Amino acid sequence: MPINSDVGYFLWLLPLALLLSSDLRATEDPCATSATRTAAAPDEQILKIEQLATTLAEDLRPKHRAYLGPEELREQDTRTLAKLLVTRLREGCEAPKETGASSKDLQADVIMMVPHANFEGIARFGFLNQHKTQASIGASDRKGRFLAEQDFSLMRLPYSDKGKELLPKYAILNLKGGDFGKFSLPAHYGDVAVVFKPEVKQRMIWSYTDSLGTDKSRRRLRRPPMTAQYETPEANRKACYGYCEAQIWGALDLTDVAYLMIKEGDKVPESLKKLGVPVYFYRPEPNPEHAAGFTRLEQAVAGNPARIKRPDVLTLSEIEKAKNEPAVRDIPKPFPNPIKSILVSKEQSILSESELLERISSPESTPADRESDSAFDPKEQLVAELATRPKTPAVIRKLKELMTDSSVHIRSQAAYGLSELPWSEFKRIALHCLKDSSEVVKLECLALVADHLTDDADIAKAIRELEAAEGDSKLKDWIKVLQAKRLCDSMASER
């Protein structure tokens, strides 16, 4: 996809909103904690906790063969889950390392181009994808993108607010050494180059070109992008087409940034001086040492780590106040309203169970133009949120009811939510689900039963019948993947 088109579009409206309200607006310190925010642990404690989480993540494995369960989403932060997904791809799709071999990351910088006017909003919300903003200056196809990104991970994934946070943000990969081609920094997407810390590569996958632009229909399952530890055989090495693309999974914010760069001769924007992140100049020119065409020059602004904070956690009252600010409320249709979209998604994630159930049942949640080819409607998003909640009797009843909804995405998310039921109870739902008329729903349910392909005769029979009824299709490709010993054994080696 176009580099950073989602983040780029997200914030052309932020100057209008003046960061939402006087309470939420950036002050002298744009990252200052809201007075109403729940008290957080000191930064030193947070760092220790994250270091422990990183250590534990190395031993983490998905609980399920082909999907990330609702309980996993509730138990882990998205950075940890992202590392888990990438580790799974490395172990299942790339050549095993020799015993005792050192684990060496790809020599490359991960860079995102962003307009300087965006950084007040990035300090507040982080770097977001179009699933969160519902807007993009690139291809705006959230349903197609979600399906494709699940294929990249070779898992079925949740689409709640936290699930959207897990989904990738796109950047370029500035590879060093080897002949990966030459390309310029795509400055038409923004005048600031954001260079991320090396740790980000632990939750990154990459491809030789736009992963979504070459085959938007994605009717067949292809081998997933490479991890940062993939050792490209010389015979398979090739130049990137247009640019080398990086997909960064999990939450992404200013704490993940190593430094910023602006073009030589440009004035340093005031918005960058406040951040606490170091700023350098760069000169656009071919560079024999790496793929992207630039040379980093002298430092323009020194860093101040004490000012770099994680985005605030907003309360319901703060969200409601922000939604009613004139600059947010009065954006005319048909213009997208990314700030409101971010706030609505956050609001859904903290609604009580009863409020969420009430909104799903409201006629207002189902628009007249149901089943959009590209955008999720309000009810589809609410159901995706409900699917990740603890399974109380009321939630279970509602999800079972939604298994007959006309929306294929609601049926697939309802099945995903019900997968937390005991197998003896979910099995009947799954067998019915595998006969759904929609490939989207069948793909979901195939993943949900993958843990039982070999230990349940009824499931094995249903899969054989499904395979026999299918021609060459993505569904059949997925069956082969799940039947293979290693994740990518059934897939062509070509990337």
Question: What are the defining features of this structure?
Answer:
nine-stranded mixed beta sheet, 2 domains, 9 strands, alpha+beta, 39% helix, Serine Threonine Protein Phosphatase 5, Tetratricopeptide repeat, globular, 495 residues
Give a short synopsis of this structure.
With 495 residues, this protein is α+β, with helices and mostly antiparallel strands. The chain has 21 helices and nine strands. Helices cover 39% and strands 10% of the residues.
What does this structure look like?
This protein is α+β, with helices and mostly antiparallel strands and 495 residues long. It contains 21 helices and nine strands. It has helices at residues 5-10, 14-17, 43-59, 70-75, 78-93, 119-125, 130-133, 142-153, 161-166, 270-273, 316-323, 326-329, 338-350, 353-361, 378-387, 393-402, 408-418, 423-433, 439-448, 457-469, 474-483; strands at residues 108-114, 169-175, 192-196, 204-207, 226-227, 245-248, 257-263, 279-284, 294-301. The protein has a nine-stranded mixed beta sheet. The two termini are 17 Å apart. The relative contact order is 0.14. The model is unreliable at 9-42 and 98-103 (pLDDT under 50).
Layout of helices and strands:
Blueprint: H1 5-10, H2 14-17, H3 43-59, H4 70-75, H5 78-93, E1 108-114, H6 119-125, H7 130-133, H8 142-153, H9 161-166, E2 169-175, E3 192-196, E4 204-207, E5 226-227, E6 245-248, E7 257-263, H10 270-273, E8 279-284, E9 294-301, H11 316-323, H12 326-329, H13 338-350, H14 353-361, H15 378-387, H16 393-402, H17 408-418, H18 423-433, H19 439-448, H20 457-469, H21 474-483
Parallel strand pairs: 7-8
Antiparallel strand pairs: 1-2, 1-3, 2-6, 3-7, 4-5, 4-6, 8-9
Helix pairs in contact: 3-5, 11-13, 14-15, 15-17, 16-17, 17-19, 19-21
